[in-house]
Amino acid sequence: MHETHEPTSSRATAYAPTDRTVPTRSANRASYDKELVHAILDEGYVCHLGFVRDGAPVVLPTLYGRIGECLYVHGSTGSRPLRMTGEADPGLAVCLTVTHVDGLVLARSAFHHSINYRSVVVHGIAHEVDDPEEKRIALDALVDHVLPGRSQDSRPANKKELAATAVIRLDLDEVSAKVRTGGITDEPEDLALPHWAGVVPVRAEYGAPVPDPGLAPGTGLPDYLAVL
Amino acid sequence: MHETHEPTSSRATAYAPTDRTVPTRSANRASYDKELVHAILDEGYVCHLGFVRDGAPVVLPTLYGRIGECLYVHGSTGSRPLRMTGEADPGLAVCLTVTHVDGLVLARSAFHHSINYRSVVVHGIAHEVDDPEEKRIALDALVDHVLPGRSQDSRPANKKELAATAVIRLDLDEVSAKVRTGGITDEPEDLALPHWAGVVPVRAEYGAPVPDPGLAPGTGLPDYLAVL
Question: Gene3D superfamilies annotated for this entry (chains A, B) (predicted)?
Answer without folding.
Answer: Electron Transport, Fmn-binding Protein, Chain A
